[in-house]
Amino acid sequence: MLFEPTLEVALKFDESDTLAKYRNEFYMRKDSIYLDGNSLGLLSKRAEKSLLESLQDWKTLGIDGWMEGTHPWFNLSEKLGEMCAPLVGASPEEVIVSGSTTVNLHQLVATFYQPEGERTKILADELTFPSDIYALQSQLKLHGFDPLTHLIQVKSRDGRLLDEEDIVAAMTDEIALIVLPSVLYRSGQILDMKRLTKEAHDRGILIGFDACHSVGAIPHRFSEWGVDFAFWCNYKHLNGGPGSVGGLYVNRKHFGTAPGLAGWFGSRKDKQFDMVHTMTAADTAGAYQIGTPHVLSLAPLIGSFEMFNEAGIGNIREKSLRLTKFLVDSIEQELNGMDFNIGNPRDDERRGGHVSLEHEEAARICKALKENGIVPDFRAPNIIRLAPVALYTSFEDVWNAVQILKKIMVEKQYEKFSNEREVVA
User: Pairing mode, if any, of strands 377-379 and 383-386?
Assistant: First the structure.
């Protein structure tokens, strides 16, 4: 992808963009460029439609909505698991849309963390999202272990990226379970999940991935790679709405393993309403559900997943790579000498769906961007995350956003703001 970052090139790319038609399917604010889709995706008209259909089912059918209506609720999590499976490279039976990111992590660790003998420690990293660390610490405490000694966190050499060699070196005989991000939430680095899974299995260790920042942005092949489990949210790249129900994957080789946290909706569907006190767990990933599905938070995903499968995750990834490269090249050309640093990998195979732009004045620059109609994302201490999303961001959007950022810096517009994050960054 060799090109000169100019407005003319941006317009040329937009003219040949096969995904451009999906832009009109999203609700976008006039005179605004939304670059925060890696934190909360925008509402699509299809997601709105499937939500309204489920509301109508409730309105007209009442309790009969569980088995009747446009989108019957009883098997909705399984239906969405089937729709989501192509996005993570799994069979439909290996995916269920249920719970939330942290609830699903608790479920999976409670199931697959089985300390025995010398293998009592959990391996993670120091750059992962805090919620994962909180969950892992609490699971260790439930087993009577001190997180200070039993949660091993691989160090970063530069504070931005993780080196797979360091992760492999930490896979010692004391490790019982590994939980790592697929894409680092700050820098956007993609970890080599295939390699890390093989290295873990060669040492007899189970491994799972937090795919919150990768599902919907990059293709996965969880089943082919032999990944033991994964979990993710659906409100970022997948545009499921704030607090949208999450998803989890369990490799079929683990089917039959009793869920660590059992709940009624993990039952086999034909047995669930027997109402007996001996659970017959589903023989699929559905076994790892806990509670009744949040139907009105599931419903938007029907429309969203439909759009993703229609567009194709390969096509989405191809455009995403072009967008992020165009953004990086434009930043380097237009913002040269303004003390910005690109903190994410440059190589396509290692770069996720967002650009990590570092600056010591990042918090106040983000405030100035919002005042100028650009919606970024700030992450402490000094990161401006910019996510051009393939389904609704144009190359012209990217070019214009960089020009506005350049104007902010030249005019020092950011100086009127404090360099402190808002309550929600």
Answer: antiparallel
Tell me how far apart the alpha carbons of residues 123 and 302 are, in angstroms, rounded to a whole number. Answer: 35
pLDDT of residue 1: 67
Q: Which of 115, 68, 75 is nearest to 289 (CA)?
A: 75
Ramachandran angles phi, psi of 155, nearest 5°: -80, 150
Question: Which tokens in the block code for residue 93?
Answer: 């039976």
**Could you give phi then psi for residue 400, rounded to 5 degrees?**
-65, -40
CB 182 within 8 A of CB 209: yes
* pLDDT of 350 strictly over 80: yes
Tokens read off for 359: 């600056």
Q: Omega before 381 cis (within 30°)?
A: yes
| Partners of 229 in beta bridges | 208, 250
HSE value, Cβ hemisphere, 13 Å, CA-based, for 249: 33
β-pair partners for 387: 36
263 Cβ neighbours under 8 A, 6+ residues apart:
289, 290, 291
Quick one: what percent of the chain has pLDDT higher than 70?
100
Query: What's the CA gap between 254 and 420, in Å, rounded?
Result: 46
Record the tokens describing residue 263, joined without a space.
Answer: 């709940």
Average pLDDT, the chain: 97
Q: How far is the C-alpha of 154 from the C-alpha of 124, rounded, in Å?
A: 6
Q: Can you give the pLDDT at residue 310?
A: 98
Match 């590994």 to its residue by tokens. 178
CA-based torsion, 214, 220, 223, 225: positive or negative: negative
Cα–Cα distance measured from residue 226 to residue 208, given in angstroms and rounded to the nearest whole number:
10
C-alpha span between 411 and 289 (Å, rounded): 53
Determine the Cα–Cα distance for residues 337 and 416; give it in Å rounded to an integer: 21
Write the CA distances from 107 to 41, 119, 340, 367, integer angstroms.
Answer: 26, 20, 41, 38
The tokens for 185 are: 């939430």
Each residue's pLDDT tens digit, 76-92: 999 999 999 999 999 99
pLDDT for the residue numbered 423: 79
Q: Tell me how far apart the alpha carbons of residues 222 and 251 are, in angstroms, rounded to a whole number.
A: 8
Query: β-pairing, 377-379 with 374-375?
Result: unpaired
Phi, psi angles (nearest 5°) of residue 291: -110, 180
Note the pLDDT tens digit of each residue in 54-84: 999 999 999 999 999 999 999 999 999 999 9
CA 222, 226, 228, 234: dihedral to nearest 10 degrees? Answer: 0
- Please give the model's pTM, rounded to 2 decimal places: 0.96
Assess whether pLDDT exceeds 80 at residue 223: yes
